[in-house]
Amino acid sequence: AEGMQFARNLEEALSLLAKNRVLLADRLEVALVEVDGAVMLQGTHPSDAIDEGRTSELAAALIVRLVREVLKVEDAVKGISLQYAAWGPKQAYHECFEVPVTFEQAEPGIIFHADKMKAGISHANAEMFSYVDEHFSQAIKHIMAAGYPAQLSKLRSAIADNASIGVFDGRAAAEKAYMSLR
To answer: Of 27, 62, 95, 117, which residue is most buried, by most CB within 10 angstroms?
Structure first.
C-alpha cells in the first residue's frame, strides 16, 4: 500500500502489486487481465481451497479500500467476482463492497472500469515509486537467492497439495514428495 500510493495511476499501482506478489505470499498468483471491456485484478492462492475463499474475500476488501481511501481513485471498482459461495447474506457483500458481487465464479478477482486505469493518483511521486520498485526487486532477488533445497521444495508442494484436499497427514505428504517419513 505504501509503495502503490506513489504510482502515477491506478494501472501502475495495481501492476506493482501483481509484479511483487511473492513479497505477500510465495504461492500467490496475481495478474491484471482485460475482461469484457474492463480490467480484472485476478488473484489465487492454494489456501483458497482450504478456507473456501475467506482469505481472498478479505484481500479483495482490503484492496478495494486501498483504491478508494489511499489511492483516492473514485468509482474505479465495477464489481467483485468470488470463486466460492457466499458465507453470509449476499446483501452484506454488496453493502461492504458497494458494487455488484458474484459468487462461484471460475475467475475470481476485482473488476475495474477500464477508463479508470489511467486515473491519476494525487500524491504520485516518480522518484519514490522508482525507489520502492527497486527495493521490491532487490527483496525478491534476495528471497529467490535464499531458495529452498530441492527436496524441501517438493515437500512444501506436497503439503500444500494435500492441504487443498483436506489431508494433513505427515506420512501422506512424505509419500507424495517421494520421501521417507523420517
So the answer is: 117
pLDDT value, residue 42: 97
Please give the grid coordinates belonging to residue 56: 481472498
- 75-78's contacts with Cβ under 8 Å and 24+ in sequence apart are 75/113, 75/116, 76/10, 76/112, 76/113, 76/116, 76/119, 77/110, 77/111, 77/112, 77/113, 78/38, 78/111, 78/112, 78/113
C-alpha to C-alpha distances, 177 to 56, 157, 181, nearest whole angstrom: 28, 8, 10
Half-sphere CA count of 167, side-chain side, radius 13 A: 15
- The count of residues in the chain is 182
pLDDT digit string, tens, across residues 68-123? 999 999 999 999 999 999 999 999 999 999 999 999 999 999 999 999 999 999 99
The pTM of the full predicted model, rounded to 2 decimals, is: 0.81
The span from the CA of 165 to the CA of 182, in Å, is 23
